[in-house]
Here is the input.
Amino acid sequence: MKTALVVTSIAAPNAVLKSLAKGAIENNIDFLVIGDTKSPEHFEIDGCHFYPISRQLGLPFKIARNLPVKHYSRKNLGYLLAKDYDVIIETDDDNFPTNEFWKPRTANNFVTHFEHTGWMNVYTHFTPDKIWPRGYPLQFLHSNQVVSGSTKIITHRYSKGWQMKIPMSMPCIE
Here is the structure.
């Protein structure tokens, strides 16, 4: 399967980015780094395709000229560049990949689908740690209950979708 790894970064080549590039080469993955105004104009790491702002503005996507600078949303350009890949992996430039990170993804997975009429803290289904999603009412943080309404949980086989792997040793949940 053709796979792309997408990262945004304002950093110069650092240990994490070099580790990602090395892993991408070893696993036959195209590594795309989307820069911003604070990124170095000349950025070189073997196995990395770097897109500084000047290169982004030359892309055939109208959104490239409309996305704000100094903003995480520029990562959308990486997704657009990788849109024809079978798999798109994304992570941050401050998370070292674990061995699990490089394991092949499969197109068919068993996923949990929630049907409900209220708000819920979805992180409770991934970790026992108490993680607060921004905007979630603080009074419900230590509860697994749905803020309002009810929840029906269905597990089924799904052939498409977004897979997120969080490096649990250094989760950066935003």
In short: Residues 3-102 form one domain. The chain has two domains: 3-102, 109-158. The two ends are 29 Å apart (CA to CA).
